[in-house]
Amino acid sequence: MFFSLVIPCYNEAANLPLLLDRCREVTRKANVEVILVDNGSTDGSQEVLSHLLRDYPGCRSIRVEVNRGYGFGILSGLDAASGNILGWTHADMQTDPQDALRGLALFEHNGPDIFVKGRRYGRPMGDTVFTVGMSIFETVLLGEPMWDINAQPTMFSRAFFETWNNPPRDFALDLYAYHQAHHAGLDVHRFPVLFGKRAHGTSHWNINWSAKRKFIRRTMGFSLQLRKSLKP
After folding, report:
1. How many CB atoms lie within 10 A of CB 165?
2. Of all helices (H) and strands (E), which one includes residue 212?
3. How far is CA 109 from the centre of its chain?
């Protein structure tokens, strides 16, 4: 079982040394690769990766020249991946890439036909309330359990990935993958992951309640599209 972990990186130059150190432990396991997607960064991330990657066997990078969204970066990495088990997580170190090893153990125990996702704890109360509200909305709208949709890592088989049709290129990709797993009848396995503080920099979307409102509008719009697709 070969596993590819995709990590989209947008202006994360300051985080990359720490991120790669954590990824070293991931790639020490046989048959694991890490693909860091420089998702149109303008902060020197490309140069940092070029300098550091030679010291991290099992880690490689691809470059998206112009940022076209969080989901586009992930999809670019998935398309370049070699594994028959695929997944993604974030570069900001709020979620540890080593959590993916715990997810991989679930595939080793249950086989490839499952969908694996982290379940966050340790988050600020305001963010937790926001997530609970969105989870309830999505669960009621789509008629399937949709809890902590943006938790990482997200992991699945290549065979499942190859069934995707026109997935979104923004933050709705997390929702799309989770929904598709339910639609495909995959058993969903969750496990707890500590959600910590960013090591460096600031979030590119979770800045304030105005940013959250924009996220809600985009997510609700895509959710309604998914809802229509469920109708016979």
Report:
1. 7
2. helix 209-230
3. 22
Q: How many helices (H) and strands (E) does the chain have?
A: 8, 7
The 8-class DSSP code of residue 57 comes to: T
**pLDDT of 73-87, one tens digit each?**
999 999 999 999 999
Looking at the 3D structure of the chain, how many domains does it have?
1
- Give 157's Cβ-side CA count (13 Å radius): 17
Task: Classify strands 154-157 and 85-88 as parallel, antiparallel or unpaired.
Answer: antiparallel
- Which residue matches tokens 């290129």? 169
Q: Amino acid identity of 144?
A: E
Tokens 């715990």 correspond to: 102
> 């995707």: which residue's tokens?
164
- What whole-number distance in Å separates Cα of residue 24 and Cα of residue 21? 5
Between β-strands 114-121 and 85-88, what pairing exists: parallel, antiparallel or unpaired? unpaired
Identify whether the C-beta of residue 144 lies closer than 8 Å to the C-beta of residue 228: no
Listed residue (34, 4, 1, 48) closest to 155, CA to CA: 4
Which residue segment(s) compose the domain that 93 sits in? Answer: 3-230
This prediction's pTM:
0.92
- Give me the sheet containing 3-9, strands edge to edge: 59-64, 32-39, 3-9, 85-88, 154-157, 114-121, 187-194
What letter represents residue 191's amino acid?
A: F
Q: Which pLDDT tens digit goes with each residue over 142-162?
A: 999 999 999 999 999 999 999
Q: CATH number for the domain including 136?
A: 3.90.550.10
